Amino acid sequence: MEQATGTVIGLIAGYYDVQTPKGVERTRARGVFRKKKEKPTVGDRVEIQIDDQGMSYLVKILPRKNRIGRPAVANVSHVLLVISAVEPDFSVALLDRFLTFFAWQKVKVSIYLSKTDLVDTAKLTEIKEILAYYQKIGYAVFTDPSKMKLETQLGAGEIWTLAGQSGAGKSTLLNKLKRDANQATGEISQSLNRGRHTTRKVELFKLGAGFLADTPGFSAIDLTPIKLTETADYFVEFKQLSAGCKFRSCQHINEPKCAVKEQLAENKILPSRYEDYLAIREEISEGRLPEYLK
Questions:
Q1: Is there a binding annotation on residue 294?
Q2: CA gap 63, 110 in Å, rounded
Q3: Global pTM?
């Protein structure tokens, strides 16, 4: 009996496609997973067995470093966050929600602004000025897929995943980055200013030495499991500045000699960024999603 280790790249009608050094093996999961109430996920590193009749079975899930989203992707090393300039409209609040969520999940993020050709010059300039702040605090920002050079950035076996609001253009971007992906794209609902889910499943596409995942869009991100006192840690510039606060546990609200509030007063922190921090704290404190996301 032959054994191999690989990465689950797709789920199809109860079968798991596993990328191994020798190619893709279509496998069945052993019954032991049902007994343990475990389920393999796209992105999982797994062990498979191939019996003497050539049948392949998934027999073990190796330890995960994370599991993100619904449907989920496991072992994500980097998120390529797609934010649209228009249709749906650019939203700083949504951008900050995503960045907070992925910081909480300890996953690096790069930002891609889509649909720049559909917005007028004045509005695009305004959006780019806002995104320049995010670039200043450490996030890579792209508007041109050709300048990403993802194939050279993906390390061996690394998994990058696309994320973003429905209709933001994730599948369109994937088709540009991976021309044989052939992902369906959809139109925007004008009444709701949101896109239809064109991606119905999670699938990994081989890109360079690693993988790129397309996922169904997020209609809402639940931040309520985050601890209120840790929220500031997921705003990267707040965390860096907190060393200069008088109080070690400073929450950057009403405390004296707060380095974050001082920088805010000097316009060195984007006002909307701080407002979103307060809104997210309120959401966590109340334990429910804001009305506009329900």
A1: no
A2: 26
A3: 0.85
Answer yes or no: is 115 a known binding residue: yes
CA dihedral angle for residue 36, residue 37, residue 41, residue 45, rounded to 10 degrees: -10
Question: Is 244 annotated as contributing to ligand binding?
Answer: no
Q: Tens digits of per-residue pLDDT, 48-76?
A: 998 888 789 999 999 999 998 877 899 99
Q: Is 170 labelled as part of a ligand binding site?
A: yes
Question: CATH number of the domain at 67-214, out of 3.20.20.70, 3.40.50.300, 3.50.50.60, 3.40.640.10?
Answer: 3.40.50.300
Is 245 annotated in a binding site? The answer is yes
Residue 176 assigned to a binding site: no
pLDDT digits (tens, 9 = 90+) for 247-294: 999 999 999 999 999 999 999 999 999 999 999 999 999 987 666 565
Residue 193: burial class (beta carbons within 10 Å; 0-12, 13-18, 19+): middle
- Residue 198 annotated in ligand binding: no
According to the annotation, is 168 in a ligand binding site?
yes
pLDDT (tens digit, 9 = 90+) per residue, 188-230?
223 223 333 344 578 899 888 999 987 765 556 889 999 999 9
| Average pLDDT score over the chain | 87
User: DSSP labels for 167-187?
Assistant: TSSHHHHHHHHSTT-------
CATH architecture of 2-61: Beta Barrel (2.40)
Q: Dig out the tokens for 110 from the structure.
A: 């790069």
165 appears as a binding residue in the annotation: yes
Whether residue 252 is annotated as binding a ligand: the answer is yes
What is the structure's pLDDT at 143?
93
> Per the annotation, does 219 bind a ligand?
no
Is residue 121 part of an annotated ligand binding site?
no
166 assigned to a ligand binding site:
yes
Task: Please give the Cα distance from 28 to 100 (Å, whole number).
Answer: 37
